[in-house]
Amino acid sequence: MTIVARDPHAPLLSCCGVGDRGTIAGRRGRGGRGVGLSALAGLLAVACSNDHPQRSCASEVWAQPQRPGAALSVVGSWDGWLLPGRPLRQVGDEGWQRVVIDDLAAGEYGYLILEDGADGRMDELNPLSLFWAEQGDLEVSRLEVGDCGAPALEIAEVRVDEGGGLEVDARFLAAQGGGPVADVAVALDGAELPAASVEVEPASGSIRVRVGGLAQGKHGLVIDARAAEDERPASARAVGWVRPRSSTWEGGTLYHVVIDRFRGDGGAPLDPPADPGGRAGGTLDGVRAAIEGGALDRLGVTALWLSPVYLGPEAARLGRDDDHLYTNYHGYWVEDGRAVEPQIGSEEALRRLVASAHSRGIKVLLDVVPNHIYEDNPWAAELAASGGLNVRDPLCICGAEDCSWGAWIQTCWFTDYLPDLRLKDAEVMARVVADAVWWTTTFDLDGVRVDAVPMMPRAATRRIAAGIRASAAPRGAFFLLGEVFTGPGAWGIDAIRYYLGPDGIDSVFDFPLMWTIRDVVAHRSVGFEALEAMLAATEAAIAGSGAVLGRFIGNHDTSRFASESAGDLGEGVDPWVDPPPQPTAPEVYERQAIALGLTLTLPGLAVLYYGDEVGLAGGDDPDCRRVMPGDDALTPAQRALRASAERLGQLRRCLPVMASDVRRTLVADGDLYAFTRDDGVDAPLVVVINRGDAPASPVIDLGASAWAGEFVDVLSGERLALGEGPTPVAAPARSIQALVPAASPCAADPGTSDP
């Protein structure tokens, strides 16, 4: 690739703009979040020479004393935690102290901050941690020192335009003592590089790459840069999306597929397995057929979540109930952490599926299982010998009389054939993180769904998140969604928020809201005021975290909403012997349309579990994982439910306001609920729900809305006027209305406004 010299008077990046310690100190002094020593694991410090930037493996710890006038120091594993440690020195007059550590070899270290030689604490500015085995697995802050004998390349910014242009700003940092950038090569992931230009400024290390003419979909640009005398290139990958179905996860729609139960090759409907724990024969190519046939597009899907694809055992095993045999149709028994199960497809089949989704602007998440492995996994014997498993005598099986979930959740085993990984062991943690990164990079994924999050130390999910995010720029290139299963009640809000935040996972499933939707809509045991209270409490709890909650009505671990609504899951119902029937009553599907409508119109990430769009019946796991019915098997009520979900899914993708978290409640009383999504700029949405069995006329008051006037219900096509004052709206029994201004392009046909 030809290097095009740039105007030396117009540098892209200044020499010390990123690693400049004065800049870091200034951010702290203004109350910014700053960066801790970990730091400098993800942020490359720079030593400026007269002619080009070079890497520096110096790291900094910043802290403020908790007691006025106290002296701070740092102790670490680099010298066996020797006291008194390295002193921090006062910087400025706002209480900040700092130490620079620049004499460590490449590797991983733990450290603590001491105050007046005692009271060791973790670095609050450092989100990453590890465990000090000699002190009973004490959690300590983590520092990773890179190899400054090699050059590095960091991505500063990625820009994409609607016309298919991708522009990346990068910066070359020479190895210590090495020369400036002399050669740059660029390539697109798995595709021929169209017209491109590369501009380089050796003095600042600045590199700008421009690529045009890219088609809709995801594009990964790999930049290799090297100095004249260095055979080792520095590499970095930038990801850009051209016309994605959604540019944000907030307001998106995620479709959840259990691969074995969805579709066979070519999209063929499946026969039910001989028993609920057996294989049905679904494949990756079957999922791809649904993508290419437009089924996901019709639902307004912006992202796809695939069940685990790990190679697993062929033999059936007794489940936790000790009464029934199960196969690994679900994928959670990991026999090989880097192989695809041949019964659902191949590595190439997974690549084809991801590429097909990407070409249509749809993102893909894969379920990863970092908590446990299967007993025949070759790694299991090694871990048993080295102490890499959580063990107890007798074995601690989660939920057993002597092994409660509450007391042993991070060390118990699901069953005796699923060894629980001791993630406090540094080598185990490193491999689990490496495996998660391997799946995302090998198959060009857009993130992962992390299984069994509370069964692991929070350090594990943070390390997985950091590892995946470091594999490509920008930071938002990957999305991490965590399973934090909770029961009903507001207590679950604190459980799910613990794992969120800018350094944690991006999203968790909103189980507290799911159970409340079931109580309000399926069981009708409480009124909509309970739903509003749960929403308000959750919004207050996660405010400022940047998290996007996954809103849903059921998943692969819960009974199906339709069977709950029909009242077919009473005490003593055994889905193995007498599975609940597919409901026939129209009101079951009308109530499900309301529940799905809530998830598709509320803020957050709407999560659709396959089959819920047609009201698929089912009891608890595994009955909630029945095969996806073919179109010919659907009743008129099921088709009407799907049409409603499709219409609302397309509306969700069409309205810009859906990508915001704004919501204002208009009515929340018994059978009636109404709210508006109005950011004051884009066309708003007004949702009116009547779960009752008789028509009602809730009074809607939009207040001083600029959009007062004629609205259209996108579900029925009916028009009505909504003024600035109180306006009664006719709400039929068991109905949901999604009202948008008649002037909005989304009113007539939401699907035509998609990218």
Folded structure, characterized:
The protein is α+β, with helices and mostly antiparallel strands. Helix content is 21%, strand content 25%. Strand 23 and strand 24 form a beta hairpin. The longest helix has 19 residues, at 636-654.
Primary descriptors:
single chain; 755 residues; alpha+beta; six-stranded antiparallel beta sheet; 39 strands; 21% helix
Mean pLDDT: 91
Spatial order of the strands forming the largest sheet: 29-28-27-26-21-20-31-30
Radius of gyration: 27 Å
Compute the number of strand runs. 39
Q: What is the helix fraction of residues, given as a range?
A: 10-25%
How big a fraction of the residues is strand?
Answer: 25-35%
Global morphology: globular
- Please identify the structural class as seen in this structure: alpha+beta
Main sheet overview: 8 strands, parallel
Low-confidence stretches: 1-50
Question: Could you provide a short overview of the structure?
Answer:
The protein is of the alpha+beta class and 755 residues long.
